[in-house]
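Homework help board

Subject: predicted structure for assignment chain

Our instructor gave us this sequence and asked us to write out the predicted structure in token form, then describe one feature. I got the tokens but I'm not sure how to describe them. Can anyone check?
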Amino acid sequence: MASAQVDQVMRTKIDTACITAEAFTKLYYESVDKKRHQMARLYMDNGLLAWNGNGANGKDEIQKYFQELPRSEHNITTLDSQPIVDDAVSSQLTFLIQVSGTVRFGDTPMKPFQQTFMITAQGDKWKIVSDCFRLQDGIF
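My token output:
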């Protein structure tokens, strides 16, 4: 493939990653804040969750983990997404999404957070392969 064609293919993948990230994160944070009972449907059967150093493996454990969290309110301030190169994921359409913002759990004050998702296409749905969430508690 000529260099110009490769560049265009990559630009298209980047554009798709950005559009997908906007729609996916809107759905994700609406679900985690208002429809927590439906979180498992966003994860692959063998999805991984790392939440402030705690882990859950598989969508059933992940669902249980979310059910035990206090109610939340997320506000997104930054969103970035990029495609994962074909060789690394056996040509499976996969994106890395990075999010930051603030979150309130229960009646606690708002705190900054960072979250990184790896999502992949499964049929006509996007599913979370891995999810890493971190609260940012102060400066080190």
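Reply (TA_rk): Your tokens look well-formed. For the description, you could write something like this. The helical segments are 3-34, 59-68. That's the kind of observation they're looking for.
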